[in-house]
Amino acid sequence: MVSNQHDARAGGCLPAVLRMAELDADLVHILPSSVLPPFWAKLVVGFVSLVCFARSYDGDFVFDDSEAIVNNKDLQAETPLGDLWRHDFWGSRLSSNTSHKSYRPLTVLTFRINYYLSGGFHPVGFHMVNILLHGGVSVLMVDVFSVLFGGLQYTSRGRRVHLAPRASLLAALLFAVHPVHTECVAGVVGRADLLCALFFLLSFLGYCKAFRESNKEGAHSSTFWVLLSILLGAVAMLCKEQGITVLGLNAVFDILVIGKFNVLEVVQKLLHKDKSLENVGLLRNGGLLLRMTLLTAGGAGMLYVRWKIMGTGPPAFTEVDNPASFADSVWFRAINYNYYYSLNAWLLLCPWWLCFDWSMGCIPLIKSVSDCRVIALAALWLCLIGLICQALCSEDSHKRRILTLGLGFLIIPFLPASNLFFRVGFVVAERVLYLPSIGYCVLLTFGFGALSKHTKKKKLIAAVVLGILFANTLRCVIRSGEWRSEEQLFRSALSVCPLNAKVHYNIGKNLADKGNQTAAIRYYREAVRLNPKYVHAMNNLGNILKERNELQEAEELLSLAVQIQPDFAAAWMNLGIVQNSLKRFEAAEQSYRTAIKHRRKYPDCYYNLGRLYADLNRHVDALNAWRNATVLKPEHSLAWNNMIILLDNTGNLAQAEAVGREALELIPNDHSLMFSLANVLGKSQKYKESEALFLKAIKANPNAASYHGNLAVLYHRWGHLDLAKKHYEISLQLDPAASGTKENYGLLRRKLEQMQKRGV
């Protein structure tokens, strides 16, 4: 039996319920009745959501996944769990000035569990969790949309009645297949948005349960459910910062829907100075005031704790990250922000042109009101103002509730990305539309219902809806495939944002990693042409030119990079390497010292500084520099090796042996260290131990000609001439041009011939 207590729950009495049923009836030509029961609706939505993104299950770690997962030490067992609460999303200390301040410890915890269960960085497990999370959120959307379209009607046993099954199913399907979600699902770092959405929706549904019980005055909130909703909102925020906005959405839902606050009625009474305004029930509702107090206190508490954890204040973004926020004129800053909003709206309406990154020239700034793009933001605000007026002022209470909740879900979760409260580090980001797309699906479904009601061409409307669902599903499958590898992802962006320097940079980096330096240079040059201040592209291009011995141009590029960004430590170090190659030793030392000044814990720079000192025969300084490198990075094999070799070459065999043993204790499986220490032990006439290390090194790297050659020298000294001959021959097979090995092999053969003549 359905409860008759409608006033506080449904935002209206029986006529409102009939209007809800009427909306569902308008959609009968689009969705058949056979899939309307909640269980089957959820099954269909879940299946469709999995089909859309299943293609990404065996993809690689791409784009931001490298920094947030592969290079994030917080995922590994050696890192204490407590560090997750002191580090940002990328594994950096929140107190660091370079931290992005993205505090998402619960998301990082799920990555860590994934890493543990997968036995390492195997992307399949990570992708599967993302796909299942999107499926779970999509299934949950059936219940959420049921509330948004059908209201809160409960049976006498406290079970909610689904009054708009068709509308909620259609909206959930539109959400499940929206291509703008691909970044969140196919990109592993998008799990932050998926988890945030999950707990966001649970918080909203929990808040709705606060209105199940009633007393003689009407609906009465359950403090337990309100507090649980706040707790779930906090959990959502610990997955991604956007989660806190659920508290604002719950407040809007409570005031405008549950409290039936009619803005038009109140404005009219204010204009006419109607004394009955004092008797507005909303102002005398103690339960509402208590709920608003709890929501406000909860939100303020979350923000305070978040600010304290953040430590050094908000992150410092550059003009490259968000050029509009650096515009000189407040007027043009506002125009560009609003243009960004219109682009986000367009991505929801027509998600065909998608890009992994929209920064760096992808969207040129509007610098004049005569720019034709101003029309886009004018159109956006015309639509928004029209919808807001209908949501607040319509005499149809059912229309008011749907439009209010649709706009609430569209706008409120988007506010943290709007630049209104603080500067954000991006221009447009598809991932931030995961939650706002809920509001878009509400408005679109309501629009289809209205069209179906007022037109006789109902089959045409049905065909359009089915066409949108099919096209979006197809786009999801295609886009998921593009996210499977970095090469496909980066190249897919060229057709969308050909002026984006970052796209060219990433393609160049991908090519360089694969060894195609010639093509990489072409893309790096284009990135620098599009953005003459792109220091990272200059640094990478300078590195490749250095490796190709084009040292003059490499020095020019790296000098320009540090001139543009004086604290760019990596560029200073690379400039030092180039200057060292040009025999400009004093300048190289100064560059290395500047790099270390800007990044105190820089083991690679200490290593290169040690190489410079070794070239200058400043052996003590070289050893000190390499020791600093190994202190900062105990697994720095090259620094350990150079220490052993330098001590060996200077006759300090005992010290070289001690350093070699220390290094192997820290890096026991490093065959190059085994080789270096074996050489030292051989010179110290510790032949047996030296032989064991040589053989172990050869087992780890059997194709190293020098390993076989030096083992042959050891056998030669030791008097094991047959074994020496065998390994000389293997070494020469691997490297026929090795002159030292040829010479030693010749000496051995002459000695064997002499012994044979003497009959030994």
UniProtKB/TrEMBL annotation:
One of its GO terms (biological process) is positive regulation of endoplasmic reticulum calcium ion concentration. Residues 313-385 form the DUF1736 domain. It is a multi-pass membrane protein. Its EC number is 2.4.1.109. Pathway: Protein modification; protein glycosylation. It holds the Pfam family TMTC_DUF1736. Belongs to the TMTC family. Transfers mannosyl residues to the hydroxyl group of serine or threonine residues. The 4 members of the TMTC family are O-mannosyl-transferases dedicated primarily to the cadherin superfamily, each member seems to have a distinct role in decorating the cadherin domains with O-linked mannose glycans at specific regions. Also acts as O-mannosyl-transferase on other proteins such as PDIA3. This is Protein O-mannosyl-transferase TMTC4.
